[in-house]
Design brief:
Blueprint lengths: L6 E5 L5 E4 L4 E2 L2 E2 L3 H10 L29 H4 L4
Antiparallel strand pairs: 1-2, 3-4
This protein binds zinc ion (ZN) (2 copies).
Length: 80
């Protein structure tokens, strides 16, 4: 079975890479290894930007400090 990889998050000023555990948050973004990213794309077909499921099927970003509420105006109206 595939292992979770540590995920590249950023490069420091001295040129060394910062790696974090898959699934942890870095600078407000969920860091996922390739395997989890593929799984998230399957689990959240409506999309996601920072964390899985934070983009609705209309492409509206619904995440942020308060957490995703997963409803834009069009979602609330039941539009496709
Ligand atoms: Zn993973
Ligand atoms: Zn929507």
């Amino acid at each position: 079975m595939e292992q979770h990889a540590r995920v590249w998050a950023m490069t420091r000023r001295d040129g060394t890479d910062v790696e974090v555990e898959c699934g942890s948050f870095f600078a407000g973004e969920r860091m996922l290894c390739e395997r989890c990213e593929r799984q998230a794309e399957r689990d959240y077909p409506q999309g996601w930007r920072h964390s899985p499921g934070d983009v609705c099927r209309h492409g509206c970003y619904l995440g942020g400090a308060s957490g995703p509420d997963l409803m834009c105006g069009r979602c609330e109206n039941g539009e496709d």
